[in-house]
Amino acid sequence: MELDASSVTAEIAVSLRQKADPERAQGAKAYLKSSLEHIGVRVPEIRSIANAALPRRSMPSRELILDVVDVLWAQPVHEFRLAACHVLVEHGSELTLTDLNLVESMIRESKTWALVDVLAGDVAWQIVAAEPTPAVPVLDRWNCDADFWLRRASVLSLLRPLRAGGGDWPLFCRYADNLWEDKEFFVRKALGWVLRDTAKKRPDMVFEWLLPRAASASGVTIREAIKPLSAPQREAIAAQRSSPPSSSWPPAHPNSGNA
Prior knowledge:
There is one protein chain. The chain is mainly α and 259 residues long. The protein has a domain of 94 residues: Alpha Horseshoe (Leucine-rich Repeat Variant), CATH 1.25.10.90. The protein is built from 15 helices and no strands. The mean pLDDT is 94.
């Protein structure tokens, strides 16, 4: 039977409602300070339901994928919107550069890390990895956007390959310098996460970049960033933080190429 958006979204909706847990819903809504309806379905179950309704093996067209996402996202229900995100994750290889416009729109409407982080770290990164050169101007714009969720997304979109030991380290450094004195907690936290996960495989590279910036870093960023570093490196960072920041800003960072 040929799949269509109506049948796929109906299956997802029914399956999600069957897994509803009112007590969990109440707690999640309060924790996320969400204006959406919550029905209390666990994230692994949401992912499983979305993938079962529109499996990769069915080779759906890009048009069908986007139609399903459209219908799910239109519902003011957190779990439906998260299911839409996971449809995009599962079928990220079918997305194109123009779909960053859709991702951007969804990020702007999300207003919570619980949706933004999936859209940036699990969806946008696939598009950026497939078409890095034309995608960079889009990320450049996100990095300077008035919406702090897009600023957060600009760095989280680079996380996956950096964590694996590749990725565009110079680009992240440029974005991080631009955001280094950002006042938003969720931006500061994202910078720390990317530095921490990159440092797990390349601690010396992260340490050398971080040291001259340590005095001006937020505590939120530093606490995450130094976790994988050696004891001597952490001590050097602590000593630098006790000194006044340099008048030269930003410090030098890598010029180009992948690290």
